[in-house]
Write a structure and sequence with these properties.
binds protoporphyrin IX containing FE
């Protein structure tokens, strides 16, 4: 079995660093939203915006800009400059991390490329990753803009798009890292058995992504602070008001009751299916790498369900909301590792 080359090893370590930074960035984005900080910076300047206010005059100027915003005027009228500073720092750090990740990606990429260390075929993938990262920043600003309008509410559609695209970029990088490690020892398993498992694994990861999208809508509509009981909602299995909007499909995206109900339903179905998947996989396969990937899915799905129910029962405290989001990303990682280990057999 060929060992992983030292060039591939360097590249996978570098990508792993980028992946970890993206993980932190996603969670920080969640905390920014949960602390109501996301609309504190009303302008976007790629270079000039990197310097935060330093003197009290600059703070007053930044606060003055915020005071012109609908969020201040309609929701935060009592806020003083010190309170403003705390929300500002979350949003500022989130934006600065985006730039940091851009640099941590670009500079080593240019170095590896110049040194000819990138294996054939990988360069286009790396360039696409970089471009997607840039688009993610633009999408973030497009999301923020929706909340700077007369009604200071960030669009749940744009918030979910921003979350989903972050997760897809994260998945793309993780998949590439797993590809680079492909030459590590693996045992061959029977092709025809694997083909069927591979198809099911793709269906399951798609279902997981749909559950994540539905979670984005719960977060975007602040639908986690109603019906804080489980499993019943307002004493009912199917809560009142699920079909309040017309046409009916609007309920799926704009009705808090339906959106929370849908997330519960999807999460419990996905959770159950992934757990059965874990049990079946552990029985079916002998391959240790594959077995470990099933175990990871089984463990993460239980943690994620517990985190989801606790987040709901406790009415979404910031720390728990952030952990539930981290859990979604870790469960997605586990499932992606599982799909990858089935795909490459
Ligand atoms: C497979 C299991 C699950 C996955 C993958 C999942 C995923 C997610 C995601 C990605 C979010 C959005 C987080 C954000 O943008 O900050 C979310 C939000 C939420 N989820 Fe889940 N979830 C799962 C299970 C559950 C369960 C079982 C419940 C409760 C019964 C639940 C309740 C919530 C609530 C209340 C929120 C809103 C939290 C907030 O406002 O930050 N989730 N979920």
């Amino acid at each position: 079995m060929p060992a992983i080359s030292s060039h591939d090893q360097h590249i996978s370590h570098w990508l792993l660093l980028c992946l970890s930074l993206i993980f932190v960035m996603v969670i920080l984005g969640g905390v920014t939203r949960l602390t109501g900080s996301g609309l504190s910076m009303v302008n976007w300047h790629p270079i000039h915006g990197m310097v935060p206010p330093l003197t009290s005059g600059q703070w007053l100027e930044e606060f003055g800009n915020y005071q012109q915003s609908p969020e201040y005027q309609k929701i935060n009228r009592d806020m003083n400059v010190d309170e403003f500073k705390s929300i500002f720092w979350f949003e500022y750090t989130h934006r600065m991390m985006g730039r940091l990740i851009g640099l941590v990606f670009l500079l080593p990429f240019l170095f590896f490329w110049w040194q000819n260390k990138i294996r054939p075929g990988l360069t286009p993938r790396l360039i696409i990753m970089f471009l997607l990262g840039g688009l993610q920043g633009l999408l973030g600003w497009y999301m923020v803009k929706s909340g700077l309008a007369a009604n200071p509410h960030v669009s749940q559609y744009r918030l979910t798009a921003h979350l989903l695209s972050a997760i897809l970029i994260y998945g793309f990088i993780l998949w590439t890292i797993l590809d680079l490690k492909q030459s590590l020892p693996y045992q061959k398993i029977h092709q025809s058995t694997v083909a069927a498992w591979r198809k099911i694994s793709l269906g399951l990861i798609t279902l997981l992504l749909i559950t994540i999208v539905s979670g984005g809508f719960v977060a975007g509509l602040k639908a986690g602070v109603i019906f804080n009981t489980f499993p019943l909602m307002g004493g009912e299995w199917i809560p009142e008001g699920v079909a309040a909007l017309s046409p009916w499909y609007l309920n799926l995206f704009e009705n808090k009751v339906t959106v929370q109900f849908g997330h519960r339903l999807l999460a419990m179905t996905t959770g159950l299916m992934l757990f059965v998947w874990y049990i079946k996989g552990r029985i079916e396969f002998e391959n240790p790498v594959l077995k470990r990937s099933f175990k990871l899915v089984g463990m993460m799905v239980i943690i994620q369900l517990l985190l989801g129910v606790s987040t709901l029962l406790m009415q979404v405290p910031v720390w728990l909301g952030a952990m539930h989001q981290a859990g979604a990303l870790l469960l997605f990682s586990a499932m992606l590792i599982n799909v990858h280990s089935l795909t490459r057999q």
